[in-house]
Every structure is written in C-alpha cells, then in structure tokens.
Design a protein that fits this description.
The protein has 118 residues and is α+β, with helices and mostly antiparallel strands. Helix content is 25%, strand content 32%. The protein has one domain: RutC-like (60s Ribosomal Protein L30, Chain: A).
Length: 118
Amino acid sequence: MTIQRIETGPRMSQAVVHQKTIYLAGQVADHDAGPSVFTQTQQALASIDRLLAAAGSDKTRILSATIWLTDMDTFGEMNRAWEAWVAPGSTPARATVHSARLAAPEYRVEIGVIAAQA
C-alpha cells in the first residue's frame, strides 16, 4: 500500500493519503491573521481547500472535521465562517472542542479533517 505525504516537514506532514483517505494536520491561520476567530477560521478553511486539492479531493468529500477553539464564546463567529464555506448537502460529521491553548498563543481556532479522495 502506498502512502502519499504532502507538504512534509521535519515534524509532520500537512496531509497524508492512504487507501483513498486523506488525513489533514490541524490547520490554523497565518501568524498575521489577528485575533478574529472569523478571519482565522476563513484562513484555516482556505488551507484545507488547498491541501484537499493537492490530494485530489475537495470539501464535498470531507467525512469528519474536528474544530478546536480556545474560547467557546467564539463558537458563533467560527460557525459563521464555517457555514459560508461548507458545501450544502455535503456537511461532514463534526465535533467542536474547547482547548485552553493551541500551538501558539495567537491561534484561537484549529481545524482538522479526514476526507475521501475523488
């Protein structure tokens, strides 16, 4: 069985494909995104779009999503960006989890997905 790794670095790969299933690392905003969870969510979703395309898929084929928020009071702000992005009729299974901290203090939202290849 072949394993494809996309954007591989010394610590991790941004995406791994095995048996037509795509596993994405948690995606966060750019360091200069500012504190807006809406903007950070938009940037994380754009990274997801880019990585899924590189793996031969798209957001309509997402099976599962996990979203980490550092403040559950921003749930609505994140959902506003998510609902504008997600493909109607192709919504994945999803969990949203509170996390006191993410990898860097400026990150307020992180999104990981598992998707099927086209």
